[in-house]
Amino acid sequence: MAANDAERPLRKDASINRERLLDAARELFAEKGLGVTLNDIAHHAGVGVGTAYRRFANKDEIIDTLFEERLEAVEAVAREALEEDDPWIALTDYLRRTLKMQFGDRGLHQILDDPTLGDERIGDVRRRIAPLIVELVRRAQEAGVVRHDFAPTDVTFIQSAMAPIMNSTRDVAPELYERYLTFILDGIRSDTREFTPLPTPALNSETTHSAMTRKRRAAARRAR
């Protein structure tokens, strides 16, 4: 019993230090990008460097942890949206909730957008999230609540299009991106009016993946 009692505070301290390191990493990634070191993260978290290396072997482990946490959260949002009976509410709720997550986590945005990272993490998104988006859009189309030419890959580009608005207005008008999201959602919703024909078709999944990872591939070529 004495040995077990002695271990409990250590486990609690380890958990607290781990969360401090993750919070510090989010802040530093957002402020300075992914070039910061594990030492920088430890100092920002207010813990010793040795403590940092006991919790994480290197900075990549922190990046992987943050990415996996957020990926799980996005997947949960998508699955919850699919439980909604109204296909329009399901699709738009997914967009609004994931954009709010993106807005509130600058560190995550740095991780997702950094061109030096490989495609493996983006591959995880494609395998786990893309099929859920396909189903959300399929339901909306079958219900006739979105225009017939709206595609699952359009969801990806809507999310990407909001990022510059979020970043440039975060400190002066934090809700402004929702204005432009509303414009877009009104543009995809189906009703009795005629839609203007789109000037170009939606990209397929492979081309979308290529477009979204172009910076990463270019950075990898330059590094060789």
Question: How would you characterize this protein structure?
Answer:
The structure is a single chain. The chain has 224 residues and is an all-alpha fold. The protein has two domains: 1-57, Homeodomain-like (Arc Repressor Mutant, subunit A, Orthogonal Bundle), CATH 1.10.10; 69-223, Tetracycline Repressor, domain 2 (Orthogonal Bundle). Helix content is 75%, strand content 0%. The chain is built from twelve helices and no strands. It has helices spanning 2-32, 38-45, 49-55, 59-82, 87-104, 106-113, 120-128, 130-142, 152-169, 176-188, 205-212, 214-223. Helix 4 packs parallel to helix 8 (130-142). The longest helix has 31 residues, at 2-32. It is elongated and about 65 Å long. Residues 1-10 have low confidence and may be disordered.
Brief synopsis:
The protein has twelve helices and no strands.
SSE arrangement:
Blueprint: H1 2-32, H2 38-45, H3 49-55, H4 59-82, H5 87-104, H6 106-113, H7 120-128, H8 130-142, H9 152-169, H10 176-188, H11 205-212, H12 214-223
What is the approximate shape? elongated
- Given helix and strand content, the structural type is mainly alpha
| Percentage beta strand | under 5%
Beginning-to-end CA distance, first to last residue = 56 Å
Oligomeric category? single chain
Q: Main sheet, how many strands, which sense, barrel?
A: none
Q: What name does CATH use for the topology of the largest domain?
A: Tetracycline Repressor, domain 2
Counting DSSP H or I runs of 4 or more residues, the number of helices is: 12
Low-pLDDT sequence parts: 1-10
Q: How large is the radius of gyration?
A: 21 Å
What's the domain count? 2
Strand count: 0
Name of the CATH first level of the largest domain: Mainly Alpha
